[in-house]
Amino acid sequence: MDFASKRQRLSYNVITNRSLKYVDYPFFFIVSILLVMGLVFLYSASALYAVNKGLDSLFYAEKQALYMLLGFGLMAAAARLDLEKVRRYIKPLVIVTLALLAVTLLMPPVAHVRRWIPLGFMKLQMSEIAKPVLVLYLADFFDRSASRIQADWRELLRPFGVSVLFFVLIAAEPDLGTPALLFVVTMAVFFAGGVKLRYILAPIAAAVPVLIEELLRKPYRIARLKNFLSPWDDASGTGYQLVQSLLAVGSGGWFGKGLGASKLKLMYLPEPHTDFIFPVVAEEIGLVGGLFITALFAALLVKGARIARNAPSLYTSLAALGLTLTLTLQAFFNLSMAIGLIPTKGIPLPFFSYGGSSILASMIMVGLILNVSAHRSGH
């Protein structure tokens, strides 16, 4: 797909000139299916956990439903934005996001990490909000600087430097999963923006020793890597989480044990309604159900790529592509983690895992993608 050829500057994104017939309703329909399934399985995974904490069995499901309703409102607002006018606010938004990521590091630690800013009614996880902000910044930059990038590779230092600031601040929480995801998305946007392959391979090569250093600096990360390579060596200790996940997925068989019949959620795995919700899902609806969910995320990837391909400008094309990759790659990372294909990381499953920040950020990204889909070149 030739995203980089879309260099025209069209006055396309005006509310009065938009046509709802161009909105990609199948994309929205797929997201709606995922949200409904996510809420059902979140209740299944969280009910007993909530009761054991002295809460109502519906506590987490009700809060997630409220986040989803708010998310639909934010999605609708994002879908109606004039994306061309939004561009003037992207740089200030980047500065505010980076500042709040820094503020996050000053917050009291929760389970030895600093990832949230307490707001009373919810805990704001700025690393989730940073995802769409970084994508919009990169899309705007490459649209404005396409010709200069071709003439001078040093123009790439600015977007790469800004991206590194995002990576470093999130990694300091500590969190390596989200920076790894954003790094992959960033490199994909670089490539789609017309950057030569050698200038993409260079930061990838530079990231390898940084990753090694981060692994060696934290002993628990080495332990996670060993668990990933051989989880059964210490199935009751450091490999417990992954082993329980694999047992749950495997015990589901072809069609699962039935809705609500998961054994994993019976306190065998801490907080099964968060990052490790997929093993509960797979245990209850089996391999067929797990493949169906995977197929839905794959369909989102295909639909999002087509939306990006049909976008009327490089800016909107790269925005739609980057946002689609952020959602779908995060899902594939989470699914791969649950079945032992990659080391365990704190990456939520979009539309399924409990968390207000994750749902709200995901729905904003969906709204922006639908926004781009409402336009066609020449309209």
Tell me briefly what this model is:
With 379 residues, this protein is mainly alpha-helical. Helices cover 65% and strands 1% of the residues. A two-stranded antiparallel sheet has the order 1-2.
Walk me through the structure.
The chain is mainly alpha-helical and 379 residues long. The protein has one domain. It is 65% helix and 1% strand. The protein contains 13 helices and two strands; from the N terminus they run ααααββααααααααα. It has helices at residues 25-52, 59-80, 83-86, 90-104, 126-151, 157-171, 177-192, 197-217, 219-229, 240-251, 277-310, 314-338, 356-373; strands spanning 117-118, 123-124. A two-stranded antiparallel ribbon has the order 1-2. Strand 1 and strand 2 (123-124) form a beta hairpin. The longest helix is centred in the C-terminal third of the chain and has 34 residues, at 277-310. The two termini are 21 Å apart. The model is unreliable at 7-17 (pLDDT under 50).
